[in-house]
Each structure stands twice: as C-alpha cells, then as structure tokens.
Predict the 3D structure of the following.
Amino acid sequence: MNKRKPLRPPVSTLAAERDARPPVEAIRSAAFTQFAERGYPVVTVRDIMKACGLTQGALYNHFKSKDELLHDIIASTQGELERQCQAAVAGAGDDPRAKLAAFVRVYVMRHCRMRVEALVANREISWLGADRVADIRRSRRAIRDIVVGILAQGVEQGVFDPPLIDGRRDLKAMAMALLDQWTHVSMWYGPGGDLGEEQMARLYADMALRSAGAKQG
C-alpha cells in the first residue's frame, strides 16, 4: 500500500495564514490540507476547525456540512483552473501551436504549484454525490473540449498531424490522455528538483506539441 506523502505546510506558515485570512478561507485551506493528508472519510469537522483555530460553529456559518465543504473547495479550484485555461488560450493568438503551448503551460504550472488542491480534487471527488459533482464534471468536460478544439483547429489548418489509429484520429481520446499526463505531475513534482515549475511547464508543452505532430512554423 502506498503511503500518503506529507503535504502539510510548516506550522509557522499555517499560523500566519490563520491571522491573515477571513474565516471562510482559513476553513477551506485547513480542509484541503486535512483531506489531502488523511482522506475525506476519516477527517471530522472538529479536525478541520482545530487545524484552522476556529470553533465548530464557525464552519456552520459558511457550510451546512462537511460534504458541502468538500464540494465547495473542489468546485472552487476547478473553476479557477477552467478560468485560467480559457484566459491563456484567449491570449495566445490564432496559431493552434501557440494555443496548445499556452494551455499546457498554465495547466502544468497550476498543478505544480497547487499540489494539495489537485490531490484533493482528483482523489476525494468520489465521495461527492451525483447532485454535487455535476458542475465539477461539466467544468472538466469544458477543459477537455478546449484541448479538443485546439487539436481540431491544428489538424484543419495543417499544422498538427496527430497519430492515426486504424485510419482515423480520435482527438477526444488524445485530449483525455494528454490531460491525464498533465494532471499527474501534481502527484510527484516537488520544489528543489532538477527542473523548476517554468521549465517543467515548457517540457510538457514541448511533449504535447510533439504528440500532436506539430509542424514548424
């Protein structure tokens, strides 16, 4: 069985953050850390509130339940990821190669920097019911469709030549495979390695362009 890697920030950092942030943000931050370290099922409301130095009553001023809190933190980080991806592509110009590189850069950078949030969003989402998970899955499909659209535009313009499988291209399957690769960086990347965040993002962008069969401009 794989052991969870410790992802808790230094105690001094947590204490400083408690003083600086509104209660709702302190609750969200503590929930992310607690769920990442121990898993949603075993973490109690008391654990979360103790971690952020607030009373249990403070949580219920903002969230009706632990389930609602889990949905809130996953939906918020997912929504911000979608917003950043859309903005990156919108600002990249008309060249599909530039769009793909910009998308990969922002996606990978966020997953390098927000490892705790990515871990919780991708692992603990299974504890949410269908009514709560619908908006999160819609956002994930929207992100996937951005990638599909970029690939389709590149193929149409003749600047991408992705692999053919039995004589056809499945750009949706390719987009999902690439997204899995970019998402998984959050599971193993850590500061202090041979490559920094910017370098890692450039590496992944280059691999994505090669996977798409990008032609030199």
About this structure: The chain has ten helices and no strands.
